[in-house]
Amino acid sequence: MTVKKRILSGMRPTGPLHLGNYHGALDNWIAMQEEYECFFFIADWHALTSDYENPGNISHFVQEMMIDWLSAGLSPEKCNLFVQSSVMEHAELFLLLSMITPVPWLERNPTYKDQIIQLDNKDLSTFGFLGYPVLQAADIIMYKANGVPVGIDQVPHIEITREIARRFNYLYGNVFPEPDAILTQSSKILGLDRRKMSKSYNNAIYLSDSQEDIRTKVSTMITDPNRARRKDPGNPEICNVFEFHRLYSPPSIVDEINSQCRLAAVGCVDCKKIMSENLVNALAPIREKRKYFEERPEMVQEIIASGNQRAKAVARETMKEVRGAVRI
Ligand code: TRP
Question: What is the distance in A from the centroid of ligand 1 to the CA of 210?
């Protein structure tokens, strides 16, 4: 028998999951749970690095995120699902790693510079925000993960993680493997307005949306921007609704839409109606499971508690080794 490789990844609980999150990350995790030993966690301390002024919603989103995960198909029998702040060892390892991490490594981190500019409505000149990748490194190496499934935007953080692990091993002896990023194909679907799907743009379709919400949102989607009138032929290649068809409609419909749109034989209104029914149906099992878990909050708590226990057992062992290596 071969030992399964261990992977780990996390999400920040800053809001409900939308289809961009689903196709950009979660569906990949769900596929990986068959093949790998998985640790998936909710990074609530990381959410606090940017939302420290309004922490009120974070614990609500933790519960919601776990419901989204379970409803979409992550199985607590197959993987370890846990919450970062419940495994206090992450904070201890973060502290020790912060002693050996040179500040310039953090200052030149591209996501750090990016976020400071993008989130200019928040004061992110904090120690915690600068140290974000150090906490992330602690999350990852705590479990001696071999691989970290992430989107391309997170690659600099995995690179810093490798550097920190290497430096720790050099200073204190070989404790940590250097993890590899496992690149996730980013989602091809855009938001309703054709910008990147994002909660902050108010252009997202959520896993938790009702059938009616989905229908209403789809009816507002921007299609091929060059197709101004019903009689103009359209170009499916640049139409976001067509991307959705590719994901949610059967191949025969996709082919039909593809040709009919180019001939102006189908209009955007009807095309969207067909797509939205297929989308509503595709998400029906997720909505049903969500309802099931929403009615059983204590069961969700139970799943989180047992995942936390399993994560803690690993973290405790790692920290024994770490304290031995650092001799403290
Ligand atoms: N920084 C990640 C993100 O914003 C979330 C995260 C925190 C993470 N710790 C992690 C991802 C560890 C992978 C591994 O998406």
Answer: 29
96-147: pLDDT as tens digits: 999 999 999 999 999 898 889 988 889 999 999 999 999 999 999 999 999 9
Ligand 1 atom at shortest distance from the alpha carbon of 157: 1
CATH no. for residue 96? Answer: 3.40.50.620
8-state DSSP, 291: H
The total number of residues written for the chain in this structure: 328
Could you tell me the distance, in angstroms and rounded to a whole number, from the CA of residue 179 to the centre of ligand 1? 13
Sign, CA dihedral 151-153-154-159, equals: positive
114 and 58 housed in the same domain: yes
Q: Which residue segment(s) compose the domain that 33 sits in?
A: 6-189+297-326
CATH of the domain at 242: 1.10.240.10
Task: Name which residue sits closest to atom 8 of ligand 1, judged by CA.
Answer: 10
Tell whether 145 and 34 lie within a shared domain: yes
Task: Indicate the pTM of the whole model.
Answer: 0.95
DSSP notation for 273-288: HHHHHHHHHHHHHHHH
Residue of 11, 84, 90, 124 with the most ligand 1 atoms within 8 Å of its CB, for mutation: 11
